Amino acid sequence: MSRKVFSIQVHKDYLKFSAAHFLIFEDGTPERLHGHNYKVFVDVETELDDVGLVIDFKRIKPLVVGILELLDERFLVPGEHPGLSVEPAGEDSWEITYRDKRYVIPREDVLVLPINNSSAENLANWIANRLDEKIAAIADKQRIHTLSVGVEETPGQRGTCCIRYRESAR
Question: Cα–chain-centroid distance for residue 143?
Fold first, then answer.
């Protein structure tokens, strides 16, 4: 028996954030500190509700914007990387150390994330998890099949995280 599944895609120009980061590659080599103007893409796949909607666009966009505001204009630090340390440097700064690199940055400019690298994929996962926590306030999670979040660091280069609540019957 087949069942129709619908989706919405939210890819607005204002779903973005600017942030500094550096990746640490598999061999341990770090990139230089640099920044991106990230764009965020959100897709939700569900069955239609009683009034014929997946989720009202007006209700999901503010949730995404609120999450992105936490990331905007920050130095994103992967707090779970085993070779990187983040320690207080006085009352108002963090000292971030990786191998021979050392940064002392005001605390208000740093966001230490529970990730092991500041890749687009990990940022998509972090955003998806925050959105997953908030989405129950605007939708019946029992209807949702998939929540997908993409983070584009440059045009044509995107990392994606997809949370599958249940498989679609197609």
Answer: 23
Q: Confidence class of residue 170 from pLDDT cuts 50, 70 and 90?
A: very low
- Which residues on neighbouring strands pair with residue 155, listed in sequence order? none
Instruction: Quote the pLDDT of residue 3.
Output: 76
Residues forming beta bridges with residue 101, ordered by sequence position = 98
Specify the DSSP class assigned to residue 108. Answer: G
Q: Which amino acid is at 92?
A: D
Closest CA to 40 of 148, 166, 164, 163: 148
Token pair in block for residue 132: 């997953």
**Burial class, 92, CB count within 10 angstroms (exposed 0-12 / middle 13-18 / buried 19+):** exposed
In the beta sheet, which residues pair with residue 77?
A: 112
| Buried b or exposed e, range 40-63, using 16+ CB within 10 angstroms | bbbbbbbbeeeeeebbeeeebeeb
**In contact, 38 and 19? CB cutoff 8 Å:** yes
Share of the chain above pLDDT 90, in %: 79
Helices (H) and strands (E) in the chain, counts: 2, 10
Q: Where are the alpha helices (DSSP H) in 31-165?
A: 57-71, 120-135
